[in-house]
Amino acid sequence: MYLSLPMKKLFLFFASFFLWSSFSHAIQQPASPFQVEKELSVAVKPGEDFEVPLRVTVPEEHYLYAEKLDVLFESLEGIRIERIEYPKPTKKFDEFLGKEVAIYTHDVAITIHGHVPENFEGGERDLIATVMLQGCTPKLCLRPETHEIQITLNVTGSVPPQAVDVSTTSDHPEETRSVWELIRTNDFAILLEQGMGLTLLIVFLAGFLTSFTPCVWPVIPLVLAVVGTHPEHKWYRNVGLSLSLVIGMVLIYAALGIGAAALGKNLGFLFQQPIFLGIISLVFILFALSLFDVFHLQLPQSVHQFFHRLGGRGYFGAFLAGIGVGFIASPCVGPVLAALLTYVVLQKNYAFGFLALVVFGLGMGSLFIIIGSGFATITDHIKSGKWMVWIKRTLGVMLLVPAIFYLTTLAGFDPLGFFMKKGGAEQIDWLTSEPEALALAEQLQKPIMIDFYADWCPPCKKLDHRFFSRQEILELSRAFVMLRIDATVETEEVEAIVDKYSVIGWPTILFLGSDGTLYPDAIITAYDPDRIRAKMLEIVEMR
Predict the structure, then answer these.
(1) What's the number of domains the chain is made of?
(2) Is 184 a domain residue?
(3) Model-level pTM?
(4) pLDDT by residue (tens digit) across 234-252?
(5) Separation of alpha carbons 199 and 183, rounded Å
């Protein structure tokens, strides 16, 4: 099987476009019931350790998810952060998530442990950090929040005469951890305690395991398309082409990761861009249709000659194709590398961070090298036939499935909700534009029901699948103009309407008159199907 599509050139063609669309701006959060208290000023001498206490206030009838609570420093001014100590959470069964989760039900006392280098110049230094958290009430989910804090460090005095040997005075005895525990750890500093060699080995294994996740599947057909299967190629040439592609992918991926960490962004920042979702879905669909033999994609001759002169068809051409593939692979592994990128941000050790990201990428790319070289070698020694056509079709499906998923995400469609509904079952026809809903309500003289929804809100999904799908509610909804505000991805329009109605938790249900007047006694900020139904009946009877 030979796939003639010059994918290494096409990916490079899109690379420059992906670069300028790669960063997203921060969105301000509305008033929060959670407050972050901090010690504004800490005095310390050069060469000494210091502690900064932070307190997150948790009101009554609220709780915080332990796994969503994190502190990231954006500016350290040469100060070293050793570790961040969190209290032990309690366990709670979350009925919406259907599993046991770790939570904080009371105020959370966090201690930041740091160290000032001995040769550090005295004076005041401002440490800027971001506290990330998400909390809930028993019936209401609050959206994820970020709180920026500033800690003034007053470095005074002289260097102490004797440094403390922390290896003999540590209050925390060394723990023995299994390889699996090290791979899954959220604290990269724990890995470094095991030594540089073992740390890089664990990072490599984590990358290799990541290559088996569905998010990485679309890369496999792209690798095969670039390497191809040529009878005249020796097995070592296929290995070289696969390795060149992986090196290109790893380098651009590592650069994106370090750039994201330096700018305080998540590695999935590309994936959050709607324009990136649309472009990458289109590329996947075109490649899939080409594999289905619907048509054959060819670049214009002038562009083809340009990239041919630039990279050629050999190893360097595969390297350039790997750079394009790296833009696709980079958003897939952001959550996996959260601990590593957090360490890079805290310590500003970008050289080691880049090395670790490269090692992780090589681990992830090992599967691609095996598949690219092995598949080509096998097909060189067996006869062609219908099975090769089916291989092409399978690769096409592997590209088409994520493309469809990305497009449905972009369009706000819920595939899970679709398949949970019975075939042909009626469902509510939600409007998504407030101006459109207001105009329609005035025209039809109907009240408006607004549902503030988000994919990250378990009770919102439960309400959608178990309440709004009921036949009684479907019939009752015909008396309203039904408006749903999806806050899964916060845009300026979503932020404006959330601020307009002072929404701070999800789900939130509001009712407006046909003239747009808010019913103040009909605001429901919880998962409460019975109350929502009662309010719907009450407002219908008022008409």
Answers:
(1) 3
(2) no
(3) 0.40
(4) 667 778 888 888 888 788 7
(5) 9
